[in-house]
Write a structure and sequence with these properties.
With 278 residues, this protein is α+β, with helices and mostly antiparallel strands. The chain has two domains: 106 residues, Pseudouridine synthase I, catalytic domain, N-terminal subdomain (Alpha-Beta Plaits), CATH 3.30.70.580; 116 residues, Alpha-Beta Plaits. Helices cover 21% and strands 20% of the residues. It contains six helices and eleven strands. The strands form two sheets. Strands 1, 2, 3, 4, 7, 8, 9, 10 and 11 form a nine-stranded mixed beta sheet that branches. Strands 5-6 form a two-stranded antiparallel ribbon. The C terminus is likely disordered. GO terms for molecular function: pseudouridine synthase activity; RNA binding.
C-alpha cells in the first residue's frame, strides 16, 4: 500500500521568492533566507516529519505551487507528488485571498461581479467563485503597509463619530457552506457597500494556480493590488485552523487537518502512515 508523505503549512513572509533551486544562505552577510533555508528551519522545528512513518526515503520536501515574492500567507510544503498535483489542478481545491486595493475613489460593488462572470487574460479566462468586500479596518486584513497617516486619522475620526452617534455595526454575512470561510458569492446588491475611502480589501476565492492570477484578475477590472495574502486553501484557514498568525510561522498538519485537505483534494486518507492527533 502506498504511504502518505509529510505535509506542512507555512506562513510565507513578504519578500521570499519561491524558487526550489535556490541555494541556502543561512542569512550570511545579511542576505535574506531562501526557500531552502526555510525548509531546513521547518524540518528542524517539526522533527517528527523527518524519517517519520509518513515519509518515504528519497522524497524531498518542496513548495506546493507558488506565491509571488510580495505575496504573503498560506503555503503548503509536501514530499508527496499526489498532493502537489491535486492542490494545483485547475478547478480543484479552492484558495482564498485578501487583496489590498487603493484607488482615488471607491469602486462600484458591481465591478466585482465581473470577477465571478469571468475576465479575459492573455492566458485564458479566469473567474472567482466568490467575492466579498472587507472594511478597510478589519484587523486581520493585510493593510499594514497602507493603513498609516491619513488612513489612521480617518479611522480615529470614524470611530469617534460612531461612538457619538451610538451607531451599531451591521452583522456580517455568513459564508455559504460550500465556500471558504468569509467569502460570499452573493450579487453585488446584497453585499456590504464599499467603505468611503481609497483603501479597501477584496476577499476572493479562486480554484486555479496560474501565475499571479489574482493580481491580474483585479488589474483587468481596474483594481491594482498593493498587497496580497492567501488566507485559506480548501478548508484550512491560515489562522483559524492552523494558528499561523505571524509571517514565518509553520506547523505540520495533524491528522484532522490532513484529513480535511485530502478530502478537499479527493485523495484517500486511509493510506498507511501515522500522524499526530494534535
Amino acid at each position: 500500500m502506498a504511504r502518505r508523505g509529510s505535509i506542512f503549512a507555512f506562513h510565507k513572509p513578504r519578500g521570499l521568492t519561491i524558487e526550489q533551486a535556490s541555494a541556502p544562505t543561512a542569512g550570511a552577510g545579511g542576505r535574506k533566507l531562501t526557500l531552502n533555508d526555510w525548509i531546513g528551519i521547518i524540518q528542524q522545528r517539526h522533527p517528527a516529519a523527518s524519517g517519520s512513518a509518513g515519509s518515504a526515503k528519497g522524497r524531498r520536501l518542496s513548495a506546493v505551487g507558488r506565491l509571488d515574492k510580495e505575496t504573503t500567507g498560506l503555503l503548503l510544503l509536501s514530499d508527496e507528488g499526489a498532493v502537489h498535483e491535486r492542490v494545483l489542478r485547475p478547478g480543484g481545491v479552492s484558495k482564498l485571498y485578501e487583496a489590498v486595493v487603493k484607488l482615488r475613489a471607491p469602486a462600484r460593488p458591481s465591478r466585482l461581479d465581473e470577477l465571478i462572470r469571468g475576465v479575459s487574460l492573455p492566458d485564458g479566462e479566469a473567474r472567482a467563485s466568490a467575492v466579498e468586500i472587507i472594511d478597510e479596518w478589519t484587523e486581520d486584513a493585510p493593510t499594514q503597509w497602507l493603513s498609516h497617516g491619513k488612513g489612521c486619522k480617518r479611522k480615529r475620526e470614524a470611530a469617534a463619530a460612531e461612538e457619538a452617534a451610538g451607531a451599531e455595526s451591521s452583522p456580517a454575512h455568513d459564508a455559504p457552506a460550500d465556500s471558504p470561510s468569509g467569502a460570499s458569492g452573493a450579487p453585488a446588491a446584497e453585499r456590504k457597500a464599499l467603505p468611503a475611502t481609497n483603501v479597501f480589501v477584496v476577499r476572493l476565492c479562486v480554484a486555479m494556480g496560474r501565475n499571479r492570477v489574482v493580481r491580474r484578475m483585479l488589474a483587468a477590472i481596474g483594481l491594482p493590488v498593493f498587497g496580497l495574502k492567501r488566507v485559506q486553501i480548501g478548508r484550512l484557514h491560515l489562522e483559524h485552523d492552523l494558528a499561523l498568525h505571524k509571517e514565518g510561522d509553520s506547523c505540520r498538519l495533524n491528522a484532522e487537518q490532513e484529513r480535511k485537505l485530502r478530502e478537499d483534494c479527493g485523495l484517500d486518507f486511509s493510506m498507511s502512515g501515522s500522524l499526530p492527533l494534535a
